[in-house]
Amino acid sequence: MIKNVILSALTIAILAGCSGKKDDGKAATVEAIPVKVQTLEKQEISRTLDYTANLQADEQIYYAPAAAGRISKIYVEVGDHIKKGQLLVDMDRTQLIQAEVQLKNLEAEYNRAVLLNKTQSISKQAYDAAVTQYEVAKANVEFLKENTQMLAPFDGVVTGKYFENGEVYTGGTFGGANKPSIISIEKINTLKANVNLSEQYFLLVKKGMKVQLKSELYPERTFEGTVNIVYPTIDPSSRTFTVEVQIPNKDEALRPGMYGIINFLVGNTEIVVAPAIAVLKLQGANNRYVFLNKNGIAKRVAVELGQRFDEKIELISNEIHEGDQLVVVGQGRLIDGAPLSVTK
User: Fold this and answer.
1) Distance between CA atoms of 170 and 164, rounded to whole angstroms?
2) Torsion from C-alpha of 118, 119, 125, 128, nearest 10 degrees
3) Which residues are CB-contacts of 14 (< 8 A; sequence separation ≥ 6)?
4) What's the rounded Cα separation, in Å, for the pair 198 and 235?
5) What string of DSSP letters covers 98-124?
6) Sign of CA dihedral 234, 238, 240, 242
7) pTM for this one?
8) Is the separation of the CB atoms in 156 and 186 below 8 Å?
9) 239: left (phi over 0), alpha (psi -120 to 50) or beta
10) Who contacts 105 (Cβ-Cβ below 8 Å, separation ≥6)?
11) CB–CB of 289/327 below 8 Å?
C-alpha cells in the first residue's frame, strides 16, 4: 500500500516536470512583429546654413552741423524720402555773411600782393602773410557754407527729427536722438545684417556668396542677398566669426529692425534622407532614434535631424548608411533586438 502511494507521487512529479518544460518552450517563442521597410538612398541637395539675424540700414547718419547755431529751416519730416544732394536743413547765415565780407576784403589785398610780387615791390614776409590770410578766410567760408546748408549725402529716408525751426542747436542730444543731431537719415533701399557663424564653416563662407532671407511678415517671399564682408578673426570665447550680408530692398518691403532667417548656400552635397514619420522621439527627452532591419532583427539607432524636405528629413548618424533598410511602418511597437516580419 505504501509502495503504491510512493509510486503515484513519483508519477505525478514526473508528469508535472514534463508539463513545466513544455510551458517554458512556448514562452521562449517570441512572435515576429510585422513591419514595412524602405531602403535608404542618398539625395543631392543644396546645403544651407540657417541663422537668425536683425536687419540694419546699410547706412545711418545722425546729421548735424560741425558748429552750434540757430536753425533757420528744416525742409523734411520723419518718413520723407530724400535724394542725394537734396537740401535738408538751413542754418542761420549770419556768420557766413560776415565771413564772406571778410573774404572779399582779403581777396583785394591778396590780388594787390600778387601784382606787387611780380615786380618785386613787396617783401616776401608781407606777400606770404597776405596769401595765408586769404587762404584761411577762403577755407572758413567753405566750412560755413557746408554747415549752413546740410545736403543729403545719399538716397534714403528721414527716420528722426529732433529740433524745430528757430531753435538753437548746441551740439547736445535732444528729442530722443542717440547722438548729437538735428535729424537722422537712413539708407534702406539696401539693408545689411551681421551674423555670427560657427568656426567650422569659416572655410566655406566667402565674399560674394549668395544668401536668402525669409521673413515671417512675407511667408511666400524669398529675398536674395550676398555676403559682403567675412571678418578675418574668430572670437575665442564663442568660437564664431562675423559675416556681414547685404540684402537689396528696392521696394522697401523690409525695414531696419526686422527679424529674419538667413540661409547661406554653401554648395551641393549628398545626404541620407528618410520619411519623417520613421523618426521616433524618446519620451521626456529630445533624443531621436529610428529602427533598422538587420537580418530580420530590429536595431535601434540614435540620430540627429538635419534639413527637412517636405515629408522627408535628413538623418545624421555614423551608424546609418546608404542601402540600409529603415523601418517606416510598425516602428512604434519595436524594441532593440525584436524579431521582424517584413511585409510589403
Assistant:
1) 13
2) -20
3) none
4) 10
5) HHHHHHHHHHHHHHHHHHHHHTT-S-H
6) negative
7) 0.60
8) yes
9) left
10) none
11) no
Cell of 240: 564664431
Cβ neighbours for 91, distance < 8 A, ≥ 6 positions apart: 65, 69, 70, 71, 72, 147, 148, 149, 150, 169
Sort strands 149-151 and 87-91 into parallel, antiparallel or unpaired.
antiparallel
Residue 244 grid coordinates: 556681414
Residue 193 CA to residue 94 CA, distance in Å, equals 43
Sheet holding 168-169, edge to edge: 149-151, 87-91, 69-74, 168-169
pLDDT 10s per residue in the chain (344 long)?
A: 444 444 444 444 444 444 444 444 444 567 889 999 999 988 887 778 889 999 999 999 999 988 888 999 999 999 999 999 999 999 998 888 898 899 999 998 899 888 888 888 888 898 899 999 999 999 988 888 888 889 999 999 999 999 999 999 988 777 677 788 999 999 999 999 999 998 888 988 999 999 999 999 999 999 999 999 999 999 999 989 999 999 999 999 999 999 999 999 877 778 888 999 999 998 878 899 999 999 999 999 999 888 788 788 888 888 999 999 999 999 989 999 999 999 87
- Cell numbers standing for residue 45: 541637395
Asked if residues 201 and 267 have their Cβ atoms less than 8 Å apart, the reply is no
